[in-house]
Amino acid sequence: MRLRRNSLSALLLIPVAAVVGVSAATPIASGAVPDRAESVYSSSSPVTSVVASKVTLAVPLPPDSLPHPAACDTLSYLRWRSADGPRSSADADRVLVAQPGIFEGAGAFDSVARNTVARAAELGRHIEFWALDRRSNCLEDHTGVRAALQTGSFDTATNYYFHGAEADGGRFAGFAEGDATAWLRDQGLAQMLRDEYDVLRIEFPDQAVRKRKVLCGGHSLGGFLTGYFAEWDFDGDPATTDDAGYNQCSGYFALDTTIKAGLGLRGLDIPELPASAAGSVEDVSLRLDTALPVLRLPAVINPETTNLLALAGLAARLSPDGVNDLVQRLPDNLNITGTLRTLLSQDAVMFATGKPDVRQLNATNEAVLGAILDDNSQPLGFLQTSVGFVGGGPVGPKTFPVPDSIARSPLALGMFGDAPKVSPTTYDPSTVYRWVDYDDTAGSTAPDARLYTSPGSEVTSIGELARSLSEPPLDFTEWYFPSRLALDLQQNSAPSFAHNHLHPDGVNRNPILTFRGSGGIPVADSGNPRDEVIQLPGYNHLDVLTAAARQNNGQPEVVSTGLADFAGNFT
Length: 571
Known about the structure:
19 strands, about 15% strand, alpha/beta, two-stranded antiparallel sheet, globular, disordered N terminus, eleven-stranded mixed sheet
C-alpha cells in the first residue's frame, strides 16, 4: 500500500434542462429495460465544464412489500458528466458510483463530483460520477426548496413548509409517520445492495462492461455498504461469479471511510455469532425495526431538522448577507428549540435555560449556516466542515455539550472533531455576526480567527456549501434513514442474508483508494500493490465531499484530483 499526502485537482460545473426517455419494461427481470427519465438541473456554479442531471429508473419493490407510494417503486441517482464528453454513459472512459453515508443523500456529492469530472477532463479523460439515492428518500418533499429557487424568495419555501401555502400546485402534507413509513422495515441491507446492483445492471447490461468501466465507493457509512456489495452474490450461487459484487467494479474508493463489510469501532470488528445466536439477535432487531422504522432522535436528527439544513443552505444561497431569515421563520416547537439549543448553546446553563435565546442573535444567513456546520461550532464530528470562521463580533470558548479539554482528548474518540469550539458572546442588536469564508480567515475581518484556526485547516467555501445543500434535486441530508439498514449493519452473520453474503474475499479482489480526513478512520488493505491512502490535513468528515476546487495553498483540491487520477489508472 502506498501512502500519499497530497495531489492536485479541479473545477466545477453547469446546467441546462432536458428529459431523456428510454423504452418501457417491468423491472428487473434479467434483460429487461425499465422506464428511464433523465433531467438536467441548473446550478449557480460559474464553471460550465460539467453537466449534472437526475436519473430515475422504474424499479418496483418486491410484490410482497408493504403498501408504499408509487414514487417508491423507482430508483434515482445524480449523474455528472463532462460537457465536452459523450452524452451516453456507455461511451464514458470510467464511471465512479458512490454510496452516501448515514443521513446523507446524493446531493452531498455535488462539489466533489463536479470537481472530479472537471479535473479528469483537463487530463483528457471523460469520466462520470454517479451518486446513488436511497429508495426511502422517495418520501421526501422538496417542492418548497425547488419553488424558492425559482422565485428567488425564501418565503416561498418557509410558507410552504410552515404555513400551509401552496407551491407548484400542491401543499406540504407534513412529515411521514406511522403507517406511511411502515414499509421501510424491509429496506435493509439486502434491498439496498440489490438496488445498487439493479442500477448498474440496467445502465450497463453487459457484466464485462460493468467490470471494466465502474469504480464503486462511498462516503462514511457508504464505505461499509460498498464492502458488503463487494462480498455479495446476487444470484446466491457462489459457483457463478458474474453476479458477485466484486465483479461489478474494477476498483473501490473510500471517502473518509474504509471499504469493509461489517461495522467496527476504531478497527474493533463485530464478531461473527453462532447461527443460533445470530437468529435471536436478528429477531430482536426486526422487532425494533417494526416499532421504529425510521432512525431518528427527539431533536437534532429527524425529518424536520434534516430539512432545516436544506433551508439553512437555501437562505444562504438566496441572500448570503440577509439577517436571520431562517431563524426568524422557524416554528416554535420542542424539536426546533431543542435542536437550536443543542447546536448553538455556548454552555450548559444556556442550553438548560434558553437564556440568552439563540433566536435573538443577529447573524447573516451565511453566518447561521456556518455556525451550524463549521468545525469551530458544530459539536458532532460527523457533521463538521472546515468552512471559515465567524466575524463581525466577539466570540468566546464554547463548552457545550462538552468542553474542549474533553472533546479534543483521545477519550472522545473523535466524536466531536479536533477543532476548538467558539460561540458569539454578545446579543446586542447593533452587532451583526457575519461569515468569513475559508480563504479569508487570515484577513482583518475576523481577528479572533487566528486564535482558533489557520488557512491550512479551512478547505470548504461557505457559498459552495450553501449551493450543495439547496440546489441538487436529490438532497444533501436524508430525512428518512431506514432503521433496518442500521440494524443489519450491526450483524455480520444475520441468517436473512447469509445466502447472499458469500464472497468474504470480495474486497481483496480490487484495488482501493482511500482518503483519510482528521478522524483517523481505520483503513482496509486489500493487499493489492495499487492500494493507496491519501492523507487530508485540515479536512473534516464532510470536507471530503464539499472542499473547494482551489485550496488556500494555491493547489487544486486533493480528493477530486486523486479520484480523477485513480479513474485514469484503469486503461
